[in-house]
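I'd like us to work through together how a protein chain folds, taking it slowly. To get us started, please write out a protein record for me. Label the sequence line and the structure token line clearly, so we can match residues to local backbone shapes. Once you have written the record down, we can walk along the chain together.
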Amino acid sequence: YKEFSRNLGALIKQYREEANVTQRDLGSEIDKTVTHISAIENGRRGVSLRSLFLIARALHIDLSQLIKETLNND
């Protein structure tokens, strides 16, 4: 699970940076703190399915593709 969380967080960070979205902006969009977003991106915190859906929507990425990419990197 830790490996999955790290890979997922890294992909979220990659997509966020590609979209030129700050952690603060993403956090505001999904009602989470910058600390929470940072912990997700660094694999220190798991992410609920609801938050994952909101993150994907905020970054305009396909949730299923995000999960597939994460699993392929495990």
Observations:
- The longest helix spans residues 2-18.
- The helical segments are 2-18, 23-30, 34-41, 49-58, 63-72.
